[in-house]
Design goal:
The protein is of the alpha/beta class. It has helices at about 5-10, 25-35, 50-60, 75-85, 105-110, 120-130, 150-160, 175-185, 195, 205-215, 235-245, 250-260, 265-270, 295-314; strands spanning about 15, 40, 65-70, 90-95, 110-115, 135, 145, 165-170, 190, 220-225, 230-235. An eight-stranded parallel beta sheet has the order 1-9-8-6-5-4-3-2. The protein is globular and about 50 Å long. The two termini are about 20 Å apart.
């Protein structure tokens, strides 16, 4: 399964695991890389020294390529980048910020740079800056999201028509059928987050994993747009957010006060399903079982091939 993405990263399959806060520790990353995909550490929930330790664990547990996802808007992103360059990480995915800040500096160190976008306008800007590839992430995706609320079915072909560099599709992808569809729209790889949250190797709390596989259509929502749009599972904490909106009191100040600090850790890592922020994508409604990473790869690849055969018969 060769594409420009497999050649760019030196991987067997064009399947990337999203670098998610609290979920993407070295166990998940190395399992994905060892299965033939590309694992990404989620640096957004790590201090600089925690990230350094995680990178070294990755090096100890795989000889395959791996990378780090860096939300540029986070306060410690500069320290994060220093660690990445010091530890000679081969691949960096940047998100939530301006890729101009780091792309050239990382590439000078021989690091491949991929930027996550939510619109063709931002894709073009990133391509002009010189990133090596683009992740086109539809608003079905979990966690922090684009304000445009463009679905993957619209975003992927728009971005593919706008740029000449390889495009990775993300948002609403958890099956081989979805992978086939994304590549039919022009993508040369896929990035999955939610599907890998519900794996044995993901570092989130087992109670959160159970909530993910229990989710039905409509159980996630995009909210907190006054701060930074985020998709999460509806729970007691979201009910408090909804109350502020219903009372027309959802000011930036009130939302910040309600959100406080550590909500994602509380919910996703510590398992407080009432008071925590439970970030996950719409595609959680299609995930019904916690599996090993190797089993997920087996499913995805088998479904992809079956879909390919079925489409050839039409």
């Amino acid at each position: 399964m060769k594409t420009r993405i497999t050649e760019l990263f030196g991987i067997q399959y064009p399947i990337i695991q999203g670098g998610m806060v609290w979920a993407s520790g070295w166990q998940l990353v190395t399992a994905v890389s060892n299965a033939g995909g590309l694992g990404l550490l989620g640096s957004g929930s790590m201090s600089s020294e925690e990230l350094r330790a995680q990178i070294r664990q990755c090096k100890a547990h795989t000889v395959k390529p791996f990378g780090v996802n860096v939300p540029i808007m986070y306060e410690n992103s500069a320290h994060t980048m220093e660690v990445i360059m010091q530890e000679h990480v081969p691949i960096v995915f940047t998100s939530a910020g301006n890729p101009t800040l780091w792309t050239a500096q990382l590439q000078e160190k021989g690091i491949k740079v991929v930027h996550v976008v939510s619109s063709s306008k931002f894709a073009l800007k990133a391509a002009q800056i010189g990133v090596d590839a683009i992740v086109a992430e539809g608003f079905e995706a979990g966690g922090h999201n684009g304000r445009e609320e463009t679905t993957s079915l619209v975003l992927i072909p728009e971005v593919c028509k706008t740029v000449n560099i390889p495009v990775i599709a993300a948002g609403g992808i958890a099956t081989g059928e979805a992978m086939y569809a994304a590549m039919a729209l022009g993508a040369e790889g896929i990035q999955m987050g939610s599907r890998f949250v519900a794996t044995e190797e993901a570092s989130v709390h087992p109670l959160f994993k159970k909530e993910v596989i229990k989710a039905k259509e409509g159980d996630t929502i995009l909210t907190l747009k006054e701060l930074s749009p985020v998709r999460l599972l509806k729970n007691k904490f979201y009910g408090q957010i909804e109350t502020l909106y219903n009372k027309q009191e959802a000011t930036t100040e009130n939302l910040k006060q309600l959100l406080g600090k550590g909500r994602t850790r509380l919910g996703m890592y510590e398992g407080n399903l009432d008071e925590g922020e439970l970030e996950i994508g719409q595609v959680s409604s299609l995930i019904h079982e916690v599996k090993s990473v190797s089993a997920v790869f087996e499913d995805i690849l088998q479904e992809f091939e079956q879909t390919k055969i079925r489409m050839q018969r039409i």
